[in-house]
Amino acid sequence: MVEILVHVVAWGIIFAFPIATMTRGGMTVQWHDYMRNLMIVASYAAVFYVNYLILVPRLMFSNRMKECLLWNIILIAGVTFCLHIGMNTLVHSIHHEQPFHPIGPPRPVMILRDAVSMILVAGLSMAIQLSRRWTQMEAARHEAEQRRTEAELKNLRSQLNPHFLLNTLNNIYALIAFDTAKAQQAVQELSRLLRHVLYDNQQQTVPLGKEMDFIRNYIELMRIRLSANVKVETQIDISSDSRTEIAPLIFISLIENAFKHGISPTEESYISISFREQKGEVRCEIRNSYYPKTRTDKSGSGIGLEQVRKRLELTYPGRYTWQQGVDEAAKEYHSILIIHI
User: What is the pLDDT confidence band of residue 322, given thresholds at 50, 70 and 90?
Assistant: First the structure.
C-alpha cells in the first residue's frame, strides 16, 4: 500500500509540474503545450512500468537478460514512434487554427533525444526493482540468520539443563555417603533451583535481579558439601529488583567450573565470586584455587565453558569481553566476563 501511494504521489508531482511551471509569473496555461508535455511524461511512464511490472520481474530476475534487452529495444522504439506520431497529430491540429512554424533541433535529433531519455527511464526502473529485490533478499537473509541463531541458542540451552542437573546431582551423590541430612537439604534447594532452570531458561532474557537470586541460591547449595578447608567469598553488588535484562544462566557454568576445579579434598582452597552492575555493563569476576580434575574424574563432561563462549557469541556479539587463564605459580584460575548491556 505504501509503495502504491509513493508511485501515485511521484507521478502526480511529475504530471502537475508543467502546469506549475506555465502558471508561474501569471502566465496563462497553453493547453497544447501541456498536452505535448503530457504525452512525453505518459510515454516515460509506459516504459517505466512495462519494465517495472513485467520485463524486470519475469525476464531479468529469471536470468534472461538477452530477452529483456531485446524487448526493451522493441518497447522504446515503439513508444518513441507512437510519441512522435502523437506529437505530429497535435501539431497539425494546432496548425489548422493558427500558423505554426516549428523551431528547435531537427526531427532525427529529437527522436534520438527522446529514445535516450526512455533508455534512462528503463534503467531507472531496473535499478529500483533491483534495489527492491536486494532489500527483500537481505531481509530474508537476516530473518534466516536470526532463526538459525535462535535455533542454536535453543539447542545450547537444552544442553545446559541436563548439564547443570548432572553436576548438581553429582554433588548431592557425594553428600549422601557421609551426611544424609545435608543431602536432603540439598535436594530441597535443588527443587527450588529447577524451576528457574526449566522455565526461565526458555526465555530470551530474564531480569538481572532474578538471575542473581538464582546464583545466590546455587552458591548456597554448593556450600552444603564443602569441607572446612574451603573458603567461599561472594560479593554481589546488584539489587534484587534490578530490571536489567540478561541472558538466563549465562554465568552459571563459570561458577560450576570454579567449584569443580577450585576445591581440593586435602589442601586449603578458596573461591571468590563477584558481580557488579555499572555504566551499562555487568561484570562477573571469579577467582579460585586451581586443582584440575584428572582424566578418571567423571564429575563433569567439560562442555560448560564452551557453551558459555558459544552463547556469548550468539547473544552478545561484539558486546562482551572475557578474560580467563591460570596462574601456575599461584595455582589460581581467574575468569573476568564483562557484558555490555
Answer: very high
Residue range(s) defining the domain that contains residue 34: 2-103
What is the CATH classification number for the domain harbouring 242? Answer: 3.30.565.10
In a domain, 237, yes or no: yes
| pLDDT tens profile 255-308 | 888 888 888 878 889 999 999 998 889 999 999 998 876 655 545 445 568 878
Please give the DSSP secondary-structure letter assigned to residue 328: T
Q: How far is CA 235 from CA 260, 284, 286, in A?
A: 20, 10, 10
Supply the pTM of this predicted model.
0.55
Are 94 and 242 contained in the same domain? Answer: no
Assess contact for 273 and 223: CB atoms under 8 A: no
Per-residue b or e along 19-46, where b marks 16 or more CB atoms closer than 10 Å to that residue's CB:
eeebeeeeeeeeeeeebbbebbeebbbb
Alpha-carbon distance 56 to 122, whole Å? Answer: 10
Question: Same domain, yes or no, for 181 and 307?
Answer: yes
Domain count, the chain: 2
